[in-house]
Amino acid sequence: MKKYIMLSVVTAFLFSCNGNMDVANNNAGTDNTVKKSVTKNNNASAAESIFIVSDTFQTQNKKEIILSSLSGKPTVVGMIFTNCSYACPKITAQMKNIAGKLKADGKDANFVLVSFDTKRDNAGQLKMFANMMNIDDSWMLLHGSEQAVRTLSVLLNVQFEKDAEGNFSHSNIISVLDKNGVLAFQKEGLEADQKETVNRIEELIN
Hints:
- The chain is an alpha+beta fold.
- Helix content is 24%, strand content 20%.
- The chain has one domain: Glutaredoxin (3-Layer(aba) Sandwich).
- The protein has five helices and eleven strands; from the N terminus they run H-E-E-E-E-E-H-E-H-E-H-E-E-E-E-H.
- It is globular and about 45 Å long.
């Protein structure tokens, strides 16, 4: 697992969650579709299932899980932190919109938010965020160790960096995984049209 953690952390970050509109190599709200078949992805780690991450995570309800417990359903993943005032609530709202457009209201897919903030985002904080965003307990909000979160971010091609104030600059990406936890589709951008994301999830369900 260490080889994934040692992969270089990129220097361009798409958005700062402190409310500043700092954008590198992208425009805020740009609708960039990243259709990354695992056989075509230039990052070799993305060909791996996230289930190789064997570390234990804790949910907003203080339940300990490992990522392989998500197997059997497609999984929609966003990486956020709860002290983020702009991008992360928008990512969460997009995921809620996706869930609402799925048949059976997303009950045939897992919806997961994973926090970058391993220091502050404990179960209680994640529960408060879930309540603020009107997210029910069918979703999982996860926090884990720094190693586990970094490894997962590499597997999902999500870039992030912690600043001196303890906040994070990060990619704004919604990832769709197949039933085996392998990256199947990604959509980037805070104002992105998620119609294709919904269609891809429906394909993976069927």
